[in-house]
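Our consortium's second objective concerns turning raw sequence data into structural hypotheses that experimental partners can test. To show how far this objective has progressed, the report includes one record in full. It was chosen at random from the queue rather than selected for favorable results. The single chain below, 132 residues long, was entered without modification.
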Amino acid sequence: MLEITCCMMSNSEFHKFGIDGQPEKLDSLEDAVRAARKYDSLCVPAHIFRSFGLITQLGIPPEIEFDGVEVKNPREYETAKKLGFSRFLFGMDAHTPDELEGIACTVETEKRDFEHLKTALYKGKVFPLWQH
């Protein structure tokens, strides 16, 4: 079992990705999801229940297939499941490495790389510390 700390990237930071240093133009949530797919990235919205979050601002965009959503506690986890989300990363609201205070979740995987993390996320092998 691998233990990791999840550090999420906000939409305002997403503009840093692009080809040859040129930022990708993102005008909508759909554009952000397309850019994530284009660069073989995971699209996992963070802070979905905050006043400026996905659920509060946009409702649930059913036509968009996210790789997962970030939740921080059992209440958010249960609410997200009731809304139909099934894949989760568990965070602590760190945005930079110096804000990381500890381990937020465990990932059951054989190797510590992106593809194994993605596989674990899709197979439900990412667990919050409050379940262990």
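The partners drew two points from this record. The chain has four helices and five strands. Strands lie at 2-4, 69-71, 88-90, 105-107, 126-128. Both points have been shared with the crystallography group to help prioritize constructs.
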